[in-house]
Design a protein that fits this description.
single chain, 53 residues, mainly alpha, 3 helices
């Protein structure tokens, strides 16, 4: 989901296998065109299963 993506940081995304700097920049460009950015906090968004306890 887009909400999961925008809450992640650049460093977190760069740890994703096969996702490099070029792909990261493309993601950031698309998000920016929609008024979004990485590292945003969405208080009402549920935690992803990997982040929960």
């Amino acid at each position: 989901y887009i909400g999961d993506l925008i809450q992640r940081t650049e460093n977190e995304l760069l740890k994703t296998p096969n996702l490099g700097r070029k792909s990261l920049n493309e993601i950031k460009d698309v998000l920016a065109s929609r008024g979004l950015s990485l590292g945003m906090k969405i208080d009402s968004w549920p935690e992803s299963p990997s982040e929960g306890s």
